[in-house]
Each structure stands twice: as structure tokens, then as C-alpha cells.
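Async update (no meeting this week)

Hi team, since we skipped the sync, here's where things stand on the single-chain job. The sequence we agreed to prioritize is pasted below, unchanged from the tracker. I ran it this morning and attached the output directly underneath so nobody has to dig for it. Comments welcome in thread, and please keep replies under the output.
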Amino acid sequence: MTTEQMVIELKSVTYDLISLLERENQGMRAIPMQEYERFINDKTALCMRYEQLVTTLRKHGDELKKLPTEIRAELRELQERFHDVADKNRIVLLAMRRTTDHIVKTIVDSIKKQAASDFSPYDKYGNAASAPISSYSKPQQKKSLSVSLNKTL
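Output:
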């Protein structure tokens, strides 16, 4: 593959990657779960191809310098745009992760708070507790609450 062909492919891969990242930045939650796995596979494949092309083109630095000025300028602008979109994508993903962590922490804290209270609707085996008739006049003993969370990030 010639340097010119690699530059053309790099531009194509970069445009596709920018489009994918912008789509993810704008509507990560709007992407249906069935489509999201394919989306991640496409993103991974494009990122790998992008890295391969950039690494290979760096080895052809002398040939790149011989390319017309407007092509080098276009490549430079495209790389800057890609890095801007990638930075925004990193921020969006970090915000999503922090939001998810906060929600899970809030749920866990709420469960711990409820478990620490005097009343628990479940016994230590996870069965619904039934209060004996005489318990209306006596204070109830503190019951344990068994909870498991399936945390997927």
C-alpha cells in the first residue's frame, strides 16, 4: 500500500470514527442494547485500524513530507477534530460511569440504612418476616436483610 493510499484510508477511518464518537456523545442512552454491542465492535475495529494506519504512516515520515501542503493541512485538521471529539467522548463516558456509580452507591446506602433500622420485612434467610401476634406489644428484634446487587458497567 502506498503512502497516498494509506492517507486516503486514514482519512476515511478517521471520518468514520469521528461520526461514531459524535453519535455516542449525543445519544449513548438512545442506542438500543441490541445495537450497542455491534456499535462497540465497530468502534473497536475502527480504533484498531486507526492506530495501525497512524503507526505505519509515522514510519513513512519522509514520504508524508512530500505530499502536497493542502493534503497535509487537511490531515492535521482532521486529526485535531478527531482528538476534540475523542476528548468529549472520554468526558461523556466518564460522566456516565460516575452517574452509574452514584446510583449504585445510593441504592446500597439506602439498603444499608433500611437494614440498620429496627424493622426489616425479611428474615435472615430472605423470607418475608411475619410478626408474631405478641410482637405488637413488644419491641421487635432487629432483623437482618440479605441483598445482592448485580452491578454491570
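Quick observations from my side:
The chain has a mean pLDDT of 83.
The longest helix spans residues 69-116.
Reply here if anything looks off.
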